[in-house]
Amino acid sequence: MKLEMLEKDLYYHIYNRGNDSEVIFRNDENKRYFLSLAAKHLDQAVSILAYCLIDNHYHFLLKIDTEEHTATQKFSNLFNAYAKAYNKRFNRTGSLFEKHFRRKKITSEAYLRNLIIYIHRNPLNHGVTPDFANFKFSSYRFCIEPLLSSPIALDKEETISYFDDLENFKFVHLRQANFRDEEGVDW
């Protein structure tokens, strides 16, 4: 399978899950470590608009700020570093993630807005929490709380700008919404 190249100045949904839907974040410490690695490897390479970590998968919405080969290598370094540390910590071997990380180019502003909402509501959609707004491993609360500092560089202003202002950003997130991508697939 040929993977789509990551093109500079374009937006992508980057996501993956554990091999055979296995848990890839057993605890909050694992999630914090993954975010610290993301900060280390992705800083200067991407602009992150939204993210969410669930026990068996993750989502990022981001813009590529560097050349395609460099961006791909940065992601590879992040995921390899995390998998090696996880395997060592839990005395396991083999692939942690399912195949290569998935990437989907964002082709419209409407799709981008819906994806931001989808990523932020992901913990609610998967039954992880009834209150997605306070979920610790999503960028939502860092977007709405000006004094909170995200563990990774987050372009809050750009994220909110797609909704005109903070009040509308909150309003559309609180609406019950199903996400359907441009190919008509429900997420």
TrEMBL record:
Note the Gene3D superfamilies from the entry: Transposase IS200-like
A Pfam cross-reference name: Y1_Tnp
**Lineage of the native species?**
Bacteria, Pseudomonadati, Bacteroidota, Flavobacteriia, Flavobacteriales
The UniProt entry's GO biological process terms, in alphabetical order, are:
DNA transposition
Q: Which residues form the Transposase IS200-like domain?
A: 7-122
Q: Which source organism? A: Dokdonia sinensis
| MF terms in GO | DNA binding; transposase activity
Please list which residues make up the signal peptide: none
Q: What is this protein called in UniProt? A: Transposase IS200-like domain-containing protein
What SMART domains does the record tag this protein with?
Answer: Y1_Tnp
Checking InterPro entries in the record gives:
Transposase_17, Transposase_17_sf
Q: Which PANTHER family match?
A: TRANSPOSASE IS200-LIKE DOMAIN-CONTAINING PROTEIN, TRANSPOSASE, Y1_TNP DOMAIN-CONTAINING
